[in-house]
Structures are given as structure tokens and as C-alpha cells.
Amino acid sequence: MTGIEIKIARIKLGIKSYELAQMIGINPDAMSRIENDRLKPSQDLLDKITTTFTVKTRQNGAI
């Protein structure tokens, strides 16, 4: 998952960048760098992002 894909998914789910950062346990600056492809997230962090998106999607009733 690229930074732009993360950003698009986040926006579609109505999550602010700082909120996602808080949910996955990183600082907002790191989240910004990830979304702008200036920082490559670890696999563990990508797993946390994916899990967060899945949970949020289910909460919104989209699945």
C-alpha cells in the first residue's frame, strides 16, 4: 500500500490524518511523511493501518 493509497482510504473513511496517527500509535508528522511517500512504513505499521481501516469500514456499515 502506497502513501497515496493510505491517504485516499483514510479520506474515504472520514478519518483525519492526526486521528489515524493516534489510532496506530505514531506521531502526526510521521503519518504525513508516510502519506507523502517520504517515509516507508514497516510491515507491522502497514498491518495496523489495514486493521484500523477494516474496523472503521465495519463500524460505518460499509461491509
TrEMBL record:
Gene Ontology terms for molecular function: DNA binding
Q: Which CDD domains match?
A: HTH_XRE
Tell me the SUPFAM superfamilies matching this sequence. lambda repressor-like DNA-binding domains
* Top-level taxonomy: Bacteria, Bacillati, Bacillota, Clostridia, Eubacteriales
- All residue ranges annotated as the HTH cro/C1-type domain in the record: 6-60
Q: Which residues cross the membrane?
A: none
| Protein's name according to its UniProt entry | HTH cro/C1-type domain-containing protein
